[in-house]
């Protein structure tokens, strides 16, 4: 599929002029990030013309971040050759969305979080379970509870 942003748009966001190798790296980053945007958002975001502009901007932002620091360094020293990675582990040096950007992609796609919470009506009797012991006030207290071994 076609990337959701162009190489020219990315070049306009960078503080340097890319050479051929950097352009190849940038194109790969745009393709990877576009695929990730479709994964986190909507697979129907195939055509950049019909994709929300915010999605394209998120792809460009992540690609520019990658191109400014393609190896993912957070620290570099000239003396003693010290380099530090950013905690991305195996993903360091690859183009990626940060968690906040992933949340934005999900919101743009209309994906919401649904939670299921068990509810018990007040005053109803439930069967006795391991892990709860009765108290003098009648509310269960979370401790070990067994008919055969009280402690």
Explain how this protein is built.
The chain is mostly helical and 151 residues long. The protein has a domain at 7-109. The chain has helices at residues 7-13, 20-40, 53-68, 99-109, and strands spanning 73-76, 83-85, 132-133, 141-142. The strands form two sheets. A two-stranded antiparallel ribbon has the order 1-2. Helix 1 (7-13) crosses helix 3 (53-68) and helix 2 (20-40) packs across helix 3 (53-68). The longest helix is centred in the N-terminal third of the chain and has 21 residues, at 20-40. It is elongated and about 75 Å long.
Put the structure in a nutshell.
The chain has about 150 residues and is mainly α. The protein has helices at about 5-15, 20-40, 55-70, 100-110; strands at about 75, 85, 130-135, 140. This is Head-to-tail adaptor.
What's the helix and strand layout?
Layout: H1 7-13, H2 20-40, H3 53-68, E1 73-76, E2 83-85, H4 99-109, E3 132-133, E4 141-142
Antiparallel strand pairs: 1-2, 3-4
């Amino acid at each position: 599929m076609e990337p959701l942003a162009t190489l020219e748009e990315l070049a306009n966001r960078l503080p340097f002029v890319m050479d051929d190798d950097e352009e190849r790296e940038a194109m790969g980053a745009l393709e990877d990030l576009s695929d990730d945007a479709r994964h986190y958002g909507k697979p129907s975001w195939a055509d950049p013309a019909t994709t929300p502009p915010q999605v394209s901007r998120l792809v460009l932002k992540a690609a520019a971040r990658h191109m400014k620091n393609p190896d993912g360094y957070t620290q570099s020293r000239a003396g003693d050759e010290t380099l530090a990675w950013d905690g991305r582990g195996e993903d360091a040096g690859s183009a990626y969305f940060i968690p906040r950007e992933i949340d934005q992609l999900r919101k743009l796609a209309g994906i919401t979080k649904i939670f299921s919470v068990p509810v018990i009506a007040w005053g109803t009797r439930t069967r006795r379970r391991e892990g709860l012991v009765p108290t003098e006030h009648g509310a269960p207290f979370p401790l070990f509870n067994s008919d055969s071994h009280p402690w």
